[in-house]
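Supplementary Note 2. Why include the ligand at all?

Several targets in our set were suspected to adopt different conformations when bound, so apo predictions alone were not considered sufficient. For every target with a known small-molecule partner we therefore ran a joint prediction. The input for magnesium ion is given below.
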Amino acid sequence: MYTHIVIHYGEIAIKGKNRPYFERVLIDNIKAHLKGLKYNNLRKISGRFILELNKDSNLEEIKNKLKNIFGISYFAFAINSSQDIDDIKKNVSELIQDEKAKTVRVLTKRSNKQFKINSLEMNKIIGEHLIKNHNLTIDLVDAELSIWIEIVEKYCFIYKNKIEGLNGLPIGVSGKVIGMLSGGIDSPVASYLMMKRGCKMIYIHFHSAPYTDKSSIEKVKDIIKLLNKYQLQSKLYLVPFIDIQKEIMTKTDKEYRVILYRRFMTRIAEIIARKDEANAIVTGEALGQVASQTSANLAVIEETVKIPILRPLIAKDKQEIIDLAIKIDTYEISILPHQDCCTLFIPKHPATKSDLNIIKRMEEKLDVNKLINDAIKNIEKMII
Ligand code: ATP
Ligand code: MG
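The joint prediction is reproduced in token form.
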């Protein structure tokens, strides 16, 4: 019965001069997600995309792909009709042939103002057809069934079920950023939220292999596979961190270790970001969640770099973050046990308010540049 999918994009429709660019990125993203699936074509018509199906199209598969694309506000399987009123009536009847609803409302969108019947008149004409031929009652407020009619250019599309999209912005329009993934609950959620705002993600993970097992690396890879539902393919940098940790452990006071670890991680992330043309670092830090995440400590961590550090979770409660992690399916993997490089050699009570001068004095005991360069030399890069 369905011949097309009507795809609407919300927020990007209001982006002024950038709009053509946003539309181009979104249509390219949709094509990439649908690669290998069968359909005739995908085009922009009057502020929406129209995907033409064919007899081999697998509607369920296409639907599942469209649900993972940021920038789509909603979409619907539609029947294409001519703009002839009798034809529209016939197609509306076909659309609702199996419906059991008793109340209905008709909502027409007319983008083609050349079309002589306006939206309200069209609602009325089709409403009367439904009352007369389908024994339905019109209910504008609380109808069990809604029928949408879109008059665009020379086409008419008719549909009854809107499928909610992810909203947000198409991945790519907000540039590239590097997500620091630990294997924990928070950082995948942070990356998801950045993708939702149109960022293309690359990822970096610091591990203590062979001192710890490789569980954190495997977890991070599995998390990226899940996050690839949204951007299809990702680059991951794996950074060996154990030598830096050993130096910090033997030469500095233990209550400052977490902060010192973070300062090294952030410096390395910045170097990779600049090489890979990423504009910002993304972390899963949330204020007050652990001792290292006080505003004073965040300031001391941030002091090492010039690149912005984005923390989309900063003001979220743990439960809100967990709820999101469950929604995006990363939670189950994140809670699996792993040997976290940052819990190695960490005291029970790390400093909650580090003094930058003290930290800098401690770093004077370390050969910061050499440690960083050695770690970077041994980075492993992979595409997932
Ligand atoms: P998460 O749930 O993401 O592990 P967390 O609440 O456990 O976060 P921390 O362990 O303090 O917080 O880490 C704060 C942030 O630092 C993480 O969200 C992540 O972005 C980054 N991070 C921590 N450890 C690593 C690591 N081993 N590799 C890469 N990034 C890390
Ligand atoms: Mg963690």
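The longest strand covers residues 74-81. The chain has a mean pLDDT of 93. Comparable summaries for the other entries are listed in the accompanying table.
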